[in-house]
Amino acid sequence: MGSPETQGPPEEQHIGPVLRRRDQIQPGTTDQRLLDTEGDSEWVHTDPWRVMRIQSEFVEGFGALAELPSAISVFGSARTRAGTPEYEAGVAIGRALVDAGFAVITGGGPGAMEAANKGAREAKGISVGLGIELPFEQGLNQHVDIGVNFRYFFVRKTMFVKYAQGFVVLPGGLGTLDELFEALTLVQTRKVTRFPIVLFGSAYWGGLVDWLRGTVVAQGKASDKDLLLFHVTDDVDEAVTLVTKEVGR
């Protein structure tokens, strides 16, 4: 057996489960590359490294939320102003959900999310905020008791669904619509066990519901029964009753 210095390049290379041959063979070993103190840092921006970050976010999220009691995710606009009827409705919903025995999960931001967290905190319940890294992110609001910040939207969305028994959706913008239709799609396709989705504010959501019925369903892009996947209400007690009824509480 010759010394490493006198041997030619190998015909094939095994790096864990990966096989490399010919001009795809990499110099050195995995340990060598790991322990080498020199070299560029571009590897931290590669897809394999991103996979590790994604995995770590799932682990942190699961670890932080695994012991939550039954919870409801509340969505709504970050632009809802304190003191407005919409904000006060969010506070009332957060408070009522806690009184009904639920923890409250929001996106952790300002506006409607802050309102629901505030109501949950005032009712001495568990107030959870799942934040997201954004260029204009303001951080978790002061009413969050358990907070987790995520880099990736899809990891955050998983947490909203996995640890909630239902959704209450306050008036909101594109982010709120994204979360709403994600939930509707998961329920419609039976990717998750059915759970209640309540749209709060008939004046705000009425146009969307009319469009779904008059255009989407009318043109055969969805069925009439898909409109039964959600409820619309203007009453805080009714919203909580709908959630409570469908989750068997």
Explain what the structure shows.
With 249 residues, the protein is an alpha/beta fold. The chain has 8 helices and 9 strands. The protein has helices at 30-35, 47-65, 85-99, 112-122, 153-162, 174-188, 202-217, 236-246; strands at 12-15, 18-21, 71-75, 103-106, 127-132, 146-150, 167-169, 197-200, 231-233. Strands 6-5-4-3-7-8-9 form a 7-stranded parallel beta sheet, with helices on both faces. β8, α7 and β9 form a beta-alpha-beta unit. α3 (85-99) packs parallel to α8. The chain starts with 11 loop residues before the first strand and ends with a helix.
Unreliable runs: none
Structural class: alpha/beta
Strand order, main sheet: write it out: 6-5-4-3-7-8-9
Main sheet characteristics: 7 strands, parallel
Q: Give the termini distance in whole angstroms.
A: 73 Å
Q: What fraction strand?
A: 15-25%
Quote the average pLDDT.
89
Overall 3D form: elongated
Count all strands and give the number.
Answer: 9
Radius of gyration: 24 Å
